[in-house]
Amino acid sequence: MKIRDIQQQLAARGYTPGPIDGIWGRQTIAAVRRFQGRHGLEPDGVVGPLTLAALFQGAPAVAAPTPSALTGFDDPGLVWFHEARRLIGTREKPGKGDNPEILDWASEQGLKSLYTGDDIPWCGLFVGHCVSSTLDREATPSNLLSARAWERFGIPIAPTPGAVMVFWRESRGSGKGHVGFYAGEDEAGAYRILGGNQSDSVSLAWLGKDRFLGARWPATVPPPVPRAIKVTRTAGLSWNEA
Q: Peptidoglycan binding-like domain: from which residue to which, for each copy (predicted)?
């Protein structure tokens, strides 16, 4: 089931989700909550099995989903991951300028005075934006600019699609780190990570499992049964995340 299908169904039933663009943003979440509230469901903005059943019952505008259609990275409940995927290609501005979109993320988090340029590492800022812009009840670390602060985010979980993944950088004891989202793994000891500040951009990169510190899951979202997504690696390991 695609996000666009859910948006189309919400619109067809009179719950305006904003643009039918396949992006799980605030307007779509608000529409889901309105629908849930009027159908006796918990208005949490998460499209789980009960919400899907109610949304598609007797409404053939979009084909009803099957359980297998809700697995992997197309799961509409992975709203923070879909926001991250939408931002792939966002880059630092070379030279003296800054990318205003990255600075806007800092303003959203109340960090405008602390985050003054995109030459400051922004992997934690990127994760913070993706989480807080889609899960407005979710608490983020007080020092979300620090990648290692995300070791205390939400609840612990084994690596699984959409999980927040934390790694050390330079050395385990350096206090420096990197954070992004689980996007698969290979058979030879590496995780594929969707993250910011990876070669100065939002991109997919491979990080060695020997650098892995832990995976976390949003506390306001029911945790899934963890599962690995196996991907064939065609690139080397990343060491450029700052």
A: 3-55
